[in-house]
């Protein structure tokens, strides 16, 4: 079975085609014939060795996969049929990641793919939209409240903007000039210039500070000033503060939600309904994963880079 992975940590060049044994679905698991896998920043961290690994090499990255069910393990019968199009949120470990022709995952991490959506686009949304959902849930905001989003043109930030609007929230988002139209199309109510001074610009719009902020730009302490006393700052790379003024800092990790079947299914429905836009920046043959990683790490990608395993 073909996979894309690494036997030693390093730059994009360490990603190579691998031949691995074909996995078999065990109890409570399904096997997916993968046709597309998205490339996310967490994949580059796996490749670079910045995430701890308990398993021996080789390592196969990838958390977003789209394909068809081709094997159903004991105890996983009933929800799926062989050949059914699905998407999966994968928690990679060792050689078990989404960059492979076939993957075995817990059935609870798999939901039907959005109807009318091809595999490439279907592979682009689960990880980032679930992370966005966790961030919004951590804030506990009510309809009509204001949320601020940094990194709004990126995959996580864009999902926060769109899900927040679906929740009935007012959204203040950051953007550079070239991204303003994109961020407005995503649904942002007001846009401020991105950068280290974004907190000041948000305060100009909301003098008392916003009750919730999702920090997709990884500004951490530099964005605390934008949050109201007693508000919530959701972070995505583990930053925990301190923030002061009673502000709750809530690091969110998508790995805590890989088994949230109902939540994954809801996101798939929202993708189907157009609540979440499925933006593809570029598609690469799987063997060109190293180039996809180089482009992602260079920055400025709008939409997802996708590996084609078809």
TrEMBL record:
SMART domains: PKS_ER. It holds the Pfam family ADH_N. Residues 10-307 form the Enoyl reductase (ER) domain. Keywords: NADP. CDD domains: MDR_like_2. PANTHER family: QUINONE OXIDOREDUCTASE (PTHR44154:SF1). This is NADP-dependent oxidoreductase. It comes from Amycolatopsis acididurans.
